[in-house]
Amino acid sequence: MMESKSFWKSGHKPTLFGAFMYFDISFMIWGMLGPLAVIIAMDYPMTPLEKANLVALPILGGSILRLVLGFMSDYIGPKLTAQIGMIVTLVPLLLGWLWVDSLGQLYVVALLLGVAGASFAAALPLAGQWYPKEHQGLAMGIAGAGNSGTVLATLFANRLATHFGSWEVVFGLAIIPIVIVFVLFSLFAKNSPNRPEPKKLSQYGALLKQKDAWVFCAFYCVTFGGFVGLCNYLTIFFNTQYGLSAVHAADITTFCVIAGSFFRPVGGFLADKIGGTRMLIFLYTGACIMLLGVSFLPPLPVVIVMLFLGMMCLGAGNGSVFQLVPQRFGNEIGLMTGIVGAAGGLGGYALPLILGQLYSTYQSYTPGFVSLSLIAAASLCLVLFMQARWRVSWLSRGSKGIADSTSLTS
Length: 410
What we know:
By secondary structure, the protein is mainly α. The protein has one domain (15-189, 207-405): MFS general substrate transporter like domains (Growth Hormone, Chain: A). The protein is built from 20 helices and no strands. Helix 2 runs antiparallel to helix 11 and helix 13 packs antiparallel against helix 14 (246-262). The chain is globular and about 50 Å long. The model is unreliable at 1-5 and 399-410 (pLDDT under 50). Belongs to the major facilitator superfamily. Nitrate/nitrite porter (TC 2.A.1.8) family. Keywords: Membrane, Nitrate assimilation, Transmembrane, Transmembrane helix, Transport. Its main location: membrane. This is Nitrate transporter.
């Protein structure tokens, strides 16, 4: 109880709320093409691989632009970076609403939607810099729970497209909430007075010379990449494999997305309590088992439960990874958020392509989900290896806090 009160007495709650709103609405926009792909395919017939590419391109754009926004967050501050990001997000929304009349043009819009996904690199430092290390997991988990915006996309995008008889109008309607959030964010959010000094561009290279940075990238590539990749692809999966309508497929996707979104802060909170790597060991194991179960393509109710639990593990894993990052790279959190976030985006870009390509080749989703399960198993092995290595190396440096956070014992 005392620790819970100490969290709420620390930091800056309006900023935490503003970071959440910004991340939430940006994720909604970033994830719109996932559910809409089934409806868009009625206007622009696509092969399974073309559908996968369409929903993967926003993730690729987000991965690239997170590096840019991560650098901007350190140099000009996360608040101004977020405001610029929201303004630029209006460009693909306007193009999707008024300009697109071919699949090629839609690909351009899909790539530009990545600026919304890059919000990660501004929202998390903005919130996290206000909080001490012992509360980083929960603070960044709450801000990161803005990935629940994907729920809004899967729940409403296809309904609005069906109601108005046009998927293009969904892009136009999305302008309204982003403008509202821009105003509220500008009023509530503030940069932390303890914000680290701006880093030079060359320091990206210096960070990437450290093996631990690559390890965190690998962890997040699987947890966040798995979460966002499935968010964008599951509507296609349910529509193709189980013959569900666009709206019904998106509704079930929403149910699965909720698990990953709202268990992110839970993962961060529990990682604060028992250690980030200990959480990741449990979560990668759970994700591996659930994805392997999905590969058998069981009846719809069973596959929904398995995907719900699998997404829950991946979402909580996101919070657990970012409980570890500030402890190891506290002074470079802005840069590391961009780098690690970019790696997560690359994982999310690859996942739809893996499922789409293997389905095109074998006319079955079994090979794709077996592959995803094996990737989760490989991640588990990496955590076990690094947990032992970190405990020895960080204790030898006198970094007791991070060593404790990687311990298998309480």
